[in-house]
Amino acid sequence: MLTGKQKRFLRSKAHHLNPIFQVGKGGVNENMIKQVAEALEARELMKISVLQNCEDDRDTVADELSKGVRAEVVQIIGNTIVLYKESRENKQIQLP
């Protein structure tokens, strides 16, 4: 689990990022979880936007994704979810 200080640090890092994935009508599926996991391994920190036509609410989407890829939900703001997972291969972010 991330501490409050670590979450604040990650939020500031994520501020300038653009969402890489969009969750739409289909919701979260196996293929998406696989792609998000690969992207997180490469980037460690990323944003995902939940589109208007998504059947699940953003909290459910965040929950499913974080469990599926074993990542931490840093923040849910508006329809954007910020996820963090420490990379095994190319660690870039040093947490406070």
What does this structure look like?
By secondary structure, this protein is α+β, with helices and mostly antiparallel strands. It has a single domain, classed as 2-Layer Sandwich (Translation Initiation Factor IF3), CATH 3.30.110.60. It contains three helices and four strands, in the order H-E-H-E-H-E-E. Strands 1-2-4-3 form a four-stranded mixed beta sheet, with helices on both faces. Helix 2 links the parallel strand 1 and strand 2. The chain is globular. 20% of the residues are buried.
Summarize the structure in short:
Helix content is 39%, strand content 21%.
Distance between the termini: 13 Å
Mean of pLDDT = 93
Structural class: alpha+beta
- What is the strand content? 15-25%
Cross-sheet strand order for the largest sheet? 1-2-4-3
The overall number of domains is 1
Question: Which runs of at least 5 residues are low in confidence (pLDDT < 50)?
Answer: none
Order of helices and strands: HEHEHEE
- By CATH's scheme, which homologous superfamily applies? YhbY-like
Shape descriptor reads globular
What integer value in Å does the Rg equal? 13 Å
Strand count, sense and barrel status of the largest sheet are: 4 strands, mixed
**What would CATH call the architecture?**
2-Layer Sandwich
Reported by name, the CATH topology is Translation Initiation Factor IF3
Total beta strand runs: 4
- Helical content band: 25-40%
Highest-level CATH class: Alpha Beta
User: How many alpha or pi helices?
Assistant: 3
